[in-house]
Write the structure tokens for this entry.
Amino acid sequence: MKIAERISNLGTETAFAVSGEARTFAAAGNTVYPFHLGDMNIRTPENIIRAAHEAMLAGRTGYAPNAGVPELREALAADVNKARGTSYTAANVAVQPGGKPVVGKFIQTLMNPGDEVLYPNPGYPIYESQIEYYGGKAVPYGYVPGKENFRLNFDVLEKALTSKTRLLIFNDLQNPTGAESSREELEAVARFAVNHDLKVLCDEAYFDIRYGGESVSLSSFPGMEERCVILYTFSKKFAMTGWRLGAALGPADVIDVIARINLNDESCSNHFIQIAAVEALKGDQSGPRKILEVLKERRDAAVEILNSIPGVSCYRPNATFYLYPDVTELMQKKGLTDYEAFRKDVLHKTGVSFCTRLHFGRALPGEDRNYVRLAYSGIDEELIRKGLGLLKEYARA
Ligand code: PLP
């Protein structure tokens, strides 16, 4: 069938292809150590599951309002205000079937064809896909190695600005690097957005996945609340990836448009899951605390082993559940220059499955180091130790 031309601009999340390959490898009787997907193998806290059951039994099974049920919109506004110092009300919240839809809806609402959008690269691949699909120009900025972690390359961000730049996509507590901007860096980004009148998508998918200290939202700086849309998700904090629930929070006029897009796309988000999400926000918080404890132990185990592998070096990010080790020397030792060849070689010789830099956007000019991304959200500590132990043997061979 002849597919519409616009589809040629629609990208994909190539990490899902890595999953398919890992599944095939496992189906052939091999053990796979799954570090590739940002999915979680931790159960959703029981109080949330129970609340969903009860909501179903209570008949919350019909359509919900397109912007979300009022009790969830109110609970989300209160929760986000508490952690970010914003002043949202229910009118500033449009509930979504996941955090991901916020990316495309933000772009549809605020970007005209031909507008330029600054986006992180390496970064979540859906940004590039959605910008180009809706006829914008995707302009990358990057993260570079710093003393203790990757840091935003603010110089590149500033230099990428042109008279056509309208939007900035910003993902602090960043996928894939785990980078976290300091308050001073955030202040500089906020000033940059205000001075150039940029509207900003604050992708805060990992805002609550941190192992010490407190997250700071770009939306909390002067002049930002009125130009930011926050991407909120229940996926990570509450281990609810498959439930599909998130929200956009921002200026009421933008939220009204996003809610109108909801009406056109999916009508509404799942009704009883929204009720369960109120329990997630207002109920017992021991579940999310436990999730963080498990993730922290996995992080510590993985970082320690990775740094003992010849030719590999890895930071210990304080947030997200990703590691982005430098594997340049290991690839050189193996005589491999191609990322895909390296990834497949490791998978077939050790069963360790991961994504590489290329799954997070096209490589930028001047990039001379090689990185892979390991997610530790979907693999138990025991398998982390076994899998990375095999990677160590592979590196030594
Ligand atoms: N933003 C970032 C940076 C992500 O990594 C993800 C998921 O991995 C999302 C948004 C969307 O997550 P979800 O649609 O599950 O809420």
User: Anything to note?
Assistant: Residues 357 and 363 are 8 Å apart (CA to CA). Residues 5-43+287-396 form a domain with the Aspartate Aminotransferase, domain 1 fold (CATH 3.90.1150.10).
